[in-house]
Design a protein that fits this description.
This protein has one domain. The chain is rod-shaped and about 120 Å long. With about 110 residues, the protein is mostly helical. It has a 3-stranded antiparallel sheet, with no helix packed on it. The chain starts with 13 loop residues before the first helix and ends with a strand. A hairpin with a 2-residue loop joins strand 2 and strand 3. It has one helix spanning about 15-85, and strands spanning about 90, 95, 100-105. The chain is built from 1 helix and 3 strands, in the order αβββ. It is about 65% helix and about 10% strand.
Length: about 110
């Protein structure tokens, strides 16, 4: 038995084909639009992250400067205490430097 393929194969008409192509074009345009939207959002997020990173760097630099100042002041204070020969001692609630006493509880 010989079977003709045309009996089983139904090809879309030109109108149907054009309609499918038109729908595919619409889908492609929507995908392009979504892609642009995603890229815009990613650019915005990247900009915000870069700004946050810059702000944190500035804050860390400021904190580093402040810590270095505190370390310098403590080092100078330590040098003065060592050079002056003053003896600093704490007993109970009393703080004394070479015999001069300061009482924390008001005494």
């Amino acid at each position: 038995m010989i079977v003709n393929c045309k009996d089983f194969l139904v090809l879309p008409s030109t109108t149907q084909r054009n309609g499918m192509i038109s729908r595919l074009d619409i889908v492609a345009e929507k995908l392009d639009s979504l892609h642009e939207g995603v890229n815009t959002r990613l650019d915005n997020i990247t900009t915000r992250l870069n700004s946050m990173e810059s702000n944190m760097d500035t804050r860390f630099d400021r904190l580093d400067t402040q810590l270095m100042m505190v370390i310098t002041q403590l080092t100078e204070m330590n040098s003065r205490l060592e050079l002056g020969g003053d003896e600093l001692s704490v007993e109970g609630d009393e703080l004394s430097i070479d015999g001069d006493k300061l009482s924390i509880d008001g005494g």
